[in-house]
């Protein structure tokens, strides 16, 4: 390649780099919503879909590999963000996308969407209800131009308190045509409440007047650390910050957890605060990933549990109720029989889906909590009996 040609290619790459790195979250959001519009969907989408869909490095890599979504590529083309044609342009574009990722925290946004147990639960719930009923994030074509006169003639407007005539709730424009969201996004978002309640309860965050059983309050009383003098700050610390209290000292802990021996208590504390990496769960039942992101044990003071960023998630009292809440919600939102393909209402929106989802999720959460608590109660009884038998045996040995 001649020097002048090399310089020309470098300029093409430079211009593509500058163009790509200069695009901000507002343009990426417009591109995502344009994609949803071309797909005939509502702007509302599962949180992870939106985060991934607005990640410039990810969609540029997919484009170069030939596996990008065609509607997404068309949306970018309509907004002047299309894939470059030349190798130099594509190299510059990828470099700019990488720079935008770093400067705008795009990859870290993925982690931030998952860096709490409740947030990870929300993502799981989003995908479960999307799988069960994709129309929750869809929209219906109203066969009317999106202008106020045509909307008013079709009865698709409302009058505000100030007398202004505006499109009815949920009505929006898609390429100049009126569409209506199948479900209000706030109601779809509310479908995460049962799973959220289950996971918060399982983590011990639903105790406003003190610590969870065997734990100190986040804002402890000076004389009794299991209680708090400031319920408002206790609730704020748990609900907003997701904080939990420390384990009570052994002398106090054994009063509320007689099923746990001192050896088990000390072993659990060692597991909880041990920073060492352990990738083999088959030797001692414990596992610890690098950085302590995810840790697990099969035999802690709560039985089997997962620790996510230091937060304890017992299988019986947290993971089981959360999973059953998500399952109940997903089963509830499924389209009714008449609304499924072949039914007489297959082309209509099943308006009862959200209500059924909330009922199913609540039933799943409460049922999971009941079963989980029964399992945990039985586990504690067996453990206490086993420990007592061990101590009785020691007493006999000492007296002989």
Would you give an account of this structure?
There is one protein chain. The protein contains 17 helices and 9 strands. Helix 2 (25-38) crosses helix 5 (70-78). Strand 6 (286-288) and strand 7 form a beta hairpin. With 400 residues, the protein is of the alpha+beta class. The relative contact order is 0.08.
Provide the descriptors you would attach to this structure in a database record.
single chain; 400 residues; alpha+beta; four-stranded antiparallel β-sheet; 9 strands; 55% helix
Précis, in short:
By secondary structure, this protein is α+β, with helices and mostly antiparallel strands.
Protein topology:
Blueprint lengths: L2 H19 L3 H14 L8 H7 L2 H10 L4 H9 L8 H18 L1 H7 L4 H16 L6 E7 L2 H6 L3 E3 L5 E3 L3 E4 L2 E5 L3 H6 L2 H10 L28 H9 L10 H7 L5 H12 L7 H4 L1 E3 L5 E7 L2 E6 L2 E4 H19 L19 H47 L1
Antiparallel strand pairs: 1-5, 2-3, 4-5, 6-7, 7-8, 8-9
Helix pairs in contact: 1-6, 2-5, 4-6, 8-11, 8-16, 11-16, 11-17, 16-17
Record the strand order, biggest sheet: 6-7-8-9
Q: Please report the distance between the alpha carbons of the first and last residues.
A: 95 Å
- The percentage helix is 55-70%
Name the overall outline: globular
Overall strand count: 9
Poorly predicted regions are none
Beta fraction: 5-15%
Largest sheet report: 4 strands, antiparallel
Q: Please report the number of helical segments.
A: 17
What's the order of the H and E elements?
Answer: HHHHHHHHEHEEEEHHHHHHEEEEHH
């Amino acid at each position: 390649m001649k020097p002048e040609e090399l310089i020309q290619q470098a300029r093409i790459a430079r211009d593509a780099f500058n163009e790509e790195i200069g695009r901000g979250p507002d343009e990426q959001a417009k591109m995502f919503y344009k994609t949803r519009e071309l797909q005939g969907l509502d702007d509302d989408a599962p949180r992870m879909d939106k985060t991934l869909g607005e990640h410039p490095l990810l969609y540029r890599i997919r484009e170069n590999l030939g596996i990008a979504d065609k509607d997404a590529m068309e949306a970018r083309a309509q907004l002047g963000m299309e894939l470059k044609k030349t190798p130099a342009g594509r190299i510059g574009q990828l470099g700019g996308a990488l720079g935008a990722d770093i400067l705008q925290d795009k990859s870290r946004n993925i982690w931030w969407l998952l860096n709490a147990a409740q947030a990870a639960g929300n993502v799981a719930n989003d995908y479960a209800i999307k799988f069960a009923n994709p129309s929750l994030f869809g929209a219906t074509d109203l066969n009317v131009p999106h202008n106020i006169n045509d909307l008013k003639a079709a009865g698709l407007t409302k009058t505000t308190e100030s007398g202004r005539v505006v499109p009815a709730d949920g009505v929006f424009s898609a390429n100049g045509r009126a569409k209506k969201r199948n479900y209000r996004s706030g109601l779809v978002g509310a479908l995460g409440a049962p799973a959220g309640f289950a996971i918060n309860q399982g983590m011990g965050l639903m105790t406003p007047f003190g610590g969870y059983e065997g734990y100190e309050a986040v804002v402890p009383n000076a004389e009794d650390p299991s209680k708090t003098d400031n319920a408002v700050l206790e609730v704020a610390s748990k609900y907003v910050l997701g904080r939990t209290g420390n384990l009570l000292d052994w002398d106090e802990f054994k009063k509320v957890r007689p099923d746990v021996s001192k050896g088990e208590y000390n072993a659990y504390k060692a597991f909880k605060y041990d920073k060492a990496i352990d990738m083999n769960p088959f030797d001692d039942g414990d596992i610890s990933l690098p950085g302590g992101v995810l840790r697990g044990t099969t035999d802690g003071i709560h039985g089997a549990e997962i620790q996510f960023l230091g937060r304890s998630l017992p299988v019986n009292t947290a993971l089981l109720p959360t999973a059953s809440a998500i399952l109940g919600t997903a089963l509830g939102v499924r389209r009714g029989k008449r609304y499924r393909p072949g039914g007489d209402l297959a082309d209509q929106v099943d308006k009862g889906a959200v209500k059924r989802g909330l009922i199913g999720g609540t039933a799943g959460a409460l049922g999971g909590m009941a079963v989980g608590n029964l399992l945990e109660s039985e586990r504690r009884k067996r453990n206490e009996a086993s420990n007592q038998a061990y101590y009785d045996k020691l007493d006999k040995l000492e007296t002989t």
